[in-house]
Design a protein that fits this description.
mainly alpha; single chain
Length: 106
């Protein structure tokens, strides 16, 4: 028998996978990547929120809080970049993406 946490995580994963694959492939790798990554990150936020609801380990809860904050920033940047790539006025050349607070590694 699944726990409520396990069932909620499975629901979140299923929702994320449906959203990632519902967009279809346009043949534009950059736009397709961004269009799939947005629901992927939304799924990560949803799963992190479930850990905050059900989890008890302080370190894991802090990590979940960081994931929520970082993924939200990345979603905003990906949506902005996706809009620029899709802009028929040619704004795709703008090379902007928000800084992610050190999540890029060394």
């Amino acid at each position: 028998m699944k726990t409520r946490f396990a069932a909620a995580m499975q629901t979140a994963m299923d929702r994320m996978m449906r959203a990632m694959h519902s967009r279809g492939n346009t043949g534009h790798p950059d736009a397709d990547f961004l269009a799939m990554m947005v629901p992927h990150h939304i799924g990560a936020i949803e799963m992190a929120r479930l850990v905050l609801e059900y989890g008890r380990d302080p370190a894991t809860r802090r990590l979940a809080e960081d994931i929520i904050a970082n993924q939200a920033t990345e979603i905003e940047g990906m949506r902005s970049r996706l809009a620029a790539l899709r802009d028929p006025r040619g704004h795709a050349a703008i090379q902007s993406f928000p800084e992610l607070g050190g999540t890029r590694g060394p």
